[in-house]
Amino acid sequence: MGSREDEEAEEEEKEKKKKKKKKRKKKKKKMMMMMMTMITAPLLHHQECTRNHSLTHLLTPSLTDCSTMSSGLYRVLSVLSESC
């Protein structure tokens, strides 16, 4: 009788360890995803800004200041929207 209870307790212990390990693995994966987001988000933002600046330079190559570029882009877009 005692050995059967010991086996059950041992199995229960193994189950707990398995669940704990699985939970730890899931937490680690979530943390990695969060870290990747923190690392890649600024890079993606930078890429988008660079792409927008490149488009602006193509539309208005003589402008160099960011605020001037955005107003130049706005003017180009407003002209395009009026013509449509």
Describe this structure in words.
With 84 residues, this protein is mainly α. The protein has one domain. The chain contains two helices and no strands. It has helices at residues 2-59, 66-83.
Summarize the structure.
Residues 1-13 have a biased composition (Acidic residues). Residues 1-31 are annotated as: Disordered. By secondary structure, the chain is mainly alpha-helical.
What are the main properties of this structure?
mainly alpha, 84 residues, single chain
Average pLDDT score: 76
The count of domains is 1
Number of helices: 2
Q: State the low-pLDDT regions, or none.
A: none
Radius of gyration: 29 Å
Structural class category: mainly alpha
Tertiary shape: rod-shaped
Quaternary state of this entry equals single chain
How much of the sequence lies in strands comes to: under 5%
Report the end-to-end length measured between terminal Cα atoms: 88 Å
Q: Can you summarize the main beta sheet? A: none
DSSP helix fraction: over 70%
Region (Disordered): 1-31
Biased composition (Basic residues): 16-31
Biased composition (Acidic residues): 1-13
